[in-house]
Amino acid sequence: MSKKKIDECIRDSLNAYFHDMNGVEPHGMYDMLLNAVEKPLLEVVMQRAEQNQSRAAEWLGLNRNTLRKKLLDHKLLK
Fold first, then answer.
1. Cβ count near 45 (within 10 Å)
2. Is 44 helix (H, G, I), strand (E, B) or coil?
3. Which SS3 state, helix, strand or coil, does residue 29 take?
4. What H or E segment, with its residue span, contains residue 62?
5. pLDDT of 1
6. Domains with residue ranges and CATH for the chain
7. pLDDT at position 18
8. Which of 51, 60, 64, 75 has the fewest CB atoms within 10 Å, measured from its CB?
9. Angle between helical axes of 29-48 and 53-60 (0-180°, round to 10)
10. Which of 30, 36, 38, 29 is CA-nearest to residue 62?
11. Binning pLDDT at 50, 70 and 90, where does residue 4 land?
């Protein structure tokens, strides 16, 4: 298991993002970050759950219908 925690990775990425912006103020970061994290989260969990939405929803602590909507939003349903 990686010794670096997820929150540390996110913090490092955000600091790099601000550095790369060269002082330009960002806009819409909240939605940008949620979308950037949510899609890979759903992809990995669905893969690990062998595409079983009920199991994935349970792992994520979501209602199955909510998970299905998020999968549709991210175009992850086959």
1. 16
2. helix
3. helix
4. none
5. 62
6. 6-73 (1.10.10.60)
7. 96
8. 75
9. 130
10. 38
11. confident
